[in-house]
């Protein structure tokens, strides 16, 4: 019976993998936007007797497949979500068959891959030797993990220890860039801290926090900075922030979900000076590194503090050496770190640098081409983000983005930055080639003509 059950599982697995491969072989030729006209067919009503596996996969392949946005191919320039490298994609398929929980007792090999990936990333980003952390479901959960750790650590230093709860706890200050990402603020609230009393610090015309406007800090302060402004890609003055925080005993947290990888680029490296002075960092492998989803990474120079905040114990669990599962909020964890291990091993140092360089080069070209078309790009290209507006006709930018989306040639979305209406283009897919950028610029030119004529 077990043999026949496993054979049935293997057949469904093989069929799903073959259908996925077929999708990938044609996705680059397809329109980028989704066809949602038949999505209602996905709900035939819950049957009394279940459908066979192949019938389920048939429905998913046909209706579900056409209802996808082609974000895995090279003409998607919307949110910074990347594609998926071949080794990482293949690893996810294999991991699905393995079905491991990423801890020492139920997934020793995948946990070792996670540990190795964490050490490789800390080394690539030139973080302190004591840095460690864990993989989470995404950057939001990574931010939450580290902000809870920061909260608990600062409160403990004030004599209010973990387990005492937040009622009656000393008030912690939050100092943040006025353009910090919304998911960081969500994480602050989920950590039980107030966003209404955040001490906001103005930014310059590139979106960088103004160090001269930073208030006096103390040992009850968490400072929220970013390496990778969501519209411009700019980096806050990390060296100055790190020095001020260390002098005051404050905690410096850096959200670098997509931007931290740019530290590998020689022309951009100086903007990351002082990154190593922070207490915690967030990076997301599914963005710039192009791994599958669920690859948020929480990194901390105080891993023992993470363990104090995140580890659990139970009578049925034997004592083990602390690992990533003791530094993450989830108990049952997928083997997501193994996909990043596969991605890094397949690229090597030079491959990571080459890919990140390509993103930057494409962004520089897109910025120049947009200016040639009459758009304004009101910032330098700091990494892979380009915000553009149309002088004298900002309202047209949203219509231009919609026109391009509907054409199926490319996908990006409207945005507002520092009071200007425009659109934002993000370059983060490993498959994006010069021809894809050609088609993007051509689609924007056609959309601009069509919108302004109408």
In short:
The chain starts with a helix and ends with a helix. The protein is globular.
CATH topology type of the domain at 91-343: Aspartate Aminotransferase, domain 2
Show unreliable segments.
Answer: none
Radius of gyration: 23 Å
Shape: globular
- By helix and strand content, what is the structural category? alpha/beta
How would you spell out the order of helices and strands? Answer: HHHHEHEHEEHEEEHHEHEEH
Strand content: 5-15%
Mean pLDDT: 95
CATH class of the domain at 91-343: Alpha Beta
CATH level-four homologous superfamily name of the domain at 91-343:
Type I PLP-dependent aspartate aminotransferase-like (Major domain)
Q: State the helix count.
A: 11
Instruction: Report the sheet with the most strands, covering strand number, pairing sense and barrel closure.
Output: 7 strands, mixed
Q: Architecture of the domain at 91-343, according to CATH?
A: 3-Layer(aba) Sandwich
Proportion of residues in helical segments: 40-55%
The neighbouring-strand order within the major sheet is 1-7-6-5-4-2-3
Query: What's the count of strands?
Result: 10
What's the end-to-end separation, in Å?
67 Å
Protein architecture, described:
- With 454 residues, this protein is an alpha/beta fold.
- Among the domains are: 2-30 and 34-68; 91-343, 3-Layer(aba) Sandwich (Aspartate Aminotransferase, domain 2).
- The protein contains eleven helices and ten strands.
- It has a seven-stranded mixed β-sheet, with helices on both faces. A three-stranded antiparallel β-sheet has the order 8-10-9.
- It starts with a helix and ends with a helix.
- One of its GO terms (molecular function) is diaminobutyrate decarboxylase activity.
């Amino acid at each position: 019976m077990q043999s026949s059950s496993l054979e049935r599982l293997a057949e469904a697995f093989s069929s799903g993998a073959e259908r996925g491969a077929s999708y990938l072989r044609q996705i680059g030729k397809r329109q980028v936007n989704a066809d949602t006209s038949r999505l209602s067919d996905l709900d035939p009503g819950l049957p009394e007797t279940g459908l066979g596996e192949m019938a389920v996969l048939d429905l998913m392949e046909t209706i579900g497949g056409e209802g996808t946005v082609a974000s895995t191919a090279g003409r998607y320039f919307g949110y910074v979500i990347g594609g998926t490298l071949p080794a990482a994609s293949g690893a996810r398929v294999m991991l699905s068959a393995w079905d491991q929980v990423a801890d020492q007792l139920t997934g020793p090999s995948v946990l070792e891959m996670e540990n190795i990936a964490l050490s490789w990333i800390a080394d690539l980003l030139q973080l302190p030797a004591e840095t460690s952390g864990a993989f989470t479901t995404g950057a939001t959960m990574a931010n939450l993990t580290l902000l809870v750790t920061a909260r608990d650590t600062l409160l403990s230093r004030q004599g209010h220890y973990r387990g005492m709860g937040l009622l009656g706890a000393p008030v912690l200050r939050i100092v943040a860039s006025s353009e910090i990402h919304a998911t960081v603020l969500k994480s602050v609230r989920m950590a039980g801290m107030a966003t209404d009393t955040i001490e906001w610090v103005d930014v310059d015309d590139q979106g960088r926090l103004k160090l001269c406007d930073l208030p006096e800090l103390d040992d009850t302060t968490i400072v929220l900075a970013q390496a990778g402004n969501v519209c411009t890609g700019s980096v806050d003055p990390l060296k100055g922030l790190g020095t001020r925080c260390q002098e005051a005993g404050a905690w410096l947290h850096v959200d670098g979900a997509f931007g931290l990888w740019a530290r590998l680029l020689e022309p951009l490296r100086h903007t990351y000076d002082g990154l190593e002075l922070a207490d915690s960092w967030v990076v997301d492998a599914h963005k710039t590194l192009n791994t599958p989803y669920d690859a948020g990474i929480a990194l901390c120079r105080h891993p023992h503090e993470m363990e104090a905040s995140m580890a659990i114990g139970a009578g049925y669990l034997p004592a083990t050496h602390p690992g990533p599962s003791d530094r993450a909020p989830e108990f049952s964890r997928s083997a997501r770190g193994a996909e990043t291990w596969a991605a890094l091993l397949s690229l090597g140092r030079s491959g990571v640098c080459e890919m990140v360089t390509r993103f930057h080069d494409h962004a520089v070209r897109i910025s120049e081409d947009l200016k040639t078309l009459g758009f304004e790009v009101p910032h330098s290209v700091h990494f892979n983000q380009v915000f553009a507006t149309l002088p004298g006709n900002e309202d047209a930018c949203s219509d231009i983005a919609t026109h391009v989306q509907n054409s199926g040639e490319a996908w990006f979305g409207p945005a507002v930055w520092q009071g200007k209406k425009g659109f934002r283009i993000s370059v983060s897919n490993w498959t994006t080639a010069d021809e894809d950028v050609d088609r993007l610029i051509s689609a924007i030119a056609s959309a601009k003509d069509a919108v302004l004529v109408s």
